[in-house]
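Quarterly update from the structural biology core.
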Amino acid sequence: MCNLYSMTKPQQAVRDLARVANDMTGNLPSLPSIFPDMMAPVVIQAPPSNTRELLMMRWGFPHSAPLPGERPRPGYVTNARHTDSVVWRPYLLRTELRCLVPATSFCEPDNRSGSTVWTWYALDESRPMFFFAGIWRSWTGPRGTKRHPVDGEHLLFSFLTTTPNAEVAAVHPKAMPVLLLDEAARETWLNGTVDEALKLQLPAPDGTLRIVRTGDKEDSPSLLSR
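Predicted structure, tokenized:
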């Protein structure tokens, strides 16, 4: 599953491609490495008028409350695979809780050699922007690190995964993010029925992606001249 991605295009590119009316992100920096629990840009349709808004959210839903006798699970739920689950269904049924997560590349760990090699995928070397099929929610509680806790109300996002295509399966055979690669897919994800939206939970066509970097935990344009 994808627990690391990048978003390095200017925010104007997000506004243009997603037809954003209200940008609430301020001065959005380049984000060459976005890890779980970090803040990242997300596009939503704000009710009641479905105005497109770009705002910052924290990556990862909380785990479900543990059963009696169980320990709380560490980390966050960053990816949604089983879309028929009662955990995810409420967010998928409500179009206002679906979102677009802009990205320029994503990373999967290659463990075939016995050690982890960070492997970055993009549409091509220029890192064109695409979107993950996301869901979002509000949540109140503590987030952040023990050293820098952030308590209160948060906006959280996660995104869908699916079976990997040929390029990703060679490195990571379990899953890949659901990529929305054109306007029709983005509109269906945001506005379609749940059945229409979930027809998008497919791997990207073989040949869509290429490996653009290995070994680094970030995919920054400043590294391209190395």
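The domain at 5-62+75-223 is CATH 3.90.1680.10 (hypothetical protein yedk fold).
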